[in-house]
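Re-run with default settings, no changes from the original entry. Doing this only to confirm the output is reproducible before filing.
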Amino acid sequence: MTMLPIFEDFVRACNENPRLRQMNRDWNRTIVIRTSDNGRCYWLQSENGLIQHGEGDRDNADMRIEGSDKVIREVFSGAISPTEPYNAGDLLVKGSQDDLVRLDIITLLIWGE
């Protein structure tokens, strides 16, 4: 089952939040998200304050995130903060610590505590 609806909701919430759009206006990143249990890949691209999403891999990713289908769904639907599974080793992140913190802030701003 595809996770595109979850990413669609995530992207919509980001793009409809003026505070986030302002905060991300200079955060131009491509993030690839891979589910470890079924190998599906999705991408998010932040450019000039707007975020887009899609399915598949991207060669030029600034950040790569991997976790189980369940963990990825929970993080991007707002059920949990990305910091929790990251600290537990259930969410693997290849990229800068600053980008991980930014992703945590984004989820906090759209989903709350």
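The longest helix spans residues 97-111. The chain has one domain: 4-111.
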